[in-house]
Amino acid sequence: MHPTLVCFAALLAAASSGVHAQTLVNGQVFTNGLAIVDAPAPGSPMHAGSVTQVAIDISGDGHLDQSASIPGSGKSTRFDSLEIYLVSYQTKQNITVSNGTELLTQEQGSTVKHWNFNVSTCIPAGNYNLTFYEASHIDNQPYFAITAYPVTVQNDNPSGACTNGTNALQDFPQASSPPPQSPWLIGTTIATQPLPTATGNAASSQSIVTSSAMSVIALGALLVLLC
Length: 227
What we know:
Helix content is 11%, strand content 32%.
């Protein structure tokens, strides 16, 4: 995880350790923060050796100005960072899909950001979580939201252990400080469908969340150095 996001997460970790349920509405995944994921759909297969495109609506279905997605924006409701990881407790993998600022800063003027993830042939087949880490402000209130939903990786011929973009697998659950629900669903009467439990080692309805960054304990220990 990018150092600025690590520092931001550490500052918010004490506020709450709960993970609020993300919601599926008309095929879109409304995350625990501002982002709305258009693709891939929950349960989608990812094929090793091919590309999976991640599409994210950063406008809140038209409610948010595009400039609010640029890190450093002065908007009262804005993105500060957005990172994505592919995680599995089953296969013991934590693979970077996108980190840093490139996802939010690309495709200037577009309200939907597209990220092409090359599913390496080193990634073993199994059940995974596509996991989003979002730092944002909503009405000038800072939040750190973690959203995970299940996907699968299909790979008949693994090429060996992954060495690029790999991260330590973290404990579940991780501390976060999300808003009570997506701001884009407040006051709506649309029928919503809670997402299924993400696969992993948790038996509750909470989604499994992991990070490429250090554990929450390590975050606290390094807070002074990072901030």
